[in-house]
Write a structure and sequence with these properties.
Largest sheet: 5 strands, antiparallel
Mean pLDDT: 88
Strand order of the largest sheet: 1-3-4-2-5
Number of helices: 1
Radius of gyration: 16 Å
Strand content: 15-25%
Low-confidence stretches: none
Number of strands: 5
Length: 133
């Protein structure tokens, strides 16, 4: 869960790779997965889809027992708000979710009014209106 991810656990990140335009998403789920490499697109074995992942720098050390690296993976499930706006997460958000606009390499991000399904702020609404013109 994102609330359980500590800044020290993501301190070896050097870049985030987004597979989709996250400006269109209210939230993404994030988890720390054990992966065989520091870099490259990881295999994805969940329902739904992978939205992004972290790349680690050369200083990142593998776990001695498993030889794997803990890397963040960002993902969404079929019943998440982007696919089912009136569904389970029409308001509120999963515990492991964060607003993707608040996430960066080495920064775990947090929930916002938007990620929780609240109304958009007047600044965001104004920006959206300008983009449509």
């Amino acid at each position: 869960m994102s609330a359980l991810i500590g800044e020290d656990e993501i301190s070896d990140e050097v870049e985030l790779v987004w597979l989709e335009d996250v400006s269109l998403l209210d939230y993404v789920r994030q988890s720390l997965d054990r992966l065989p490499t520091r870099r490259g697109r990881p295999a994805y074995h969940r329902d739904g889809r992978m939205v992004g992942y972290a790349l680690l720098g050369p200083q990142a050390r593998a776990s001695r027992p498993s030889g794997t690296f803990r890397r963040r993976v960002f993902w969404l499930l079929p019943h998440d708000r982007d696919c089912d706006p009136e569904g389970l997460y029409g308001t509120g958000a999963p515990s492991e979710s964060v607003d993707p606009r608040t996430v960066a390499a080495k920064a775990k991000g947090h929930k916002t009014e938007r990620s929780e399904g609240g109304p958009l702020s007047s600044v965001i609404c104004e920006m959206d209106t300008r983009l449509r013109l």
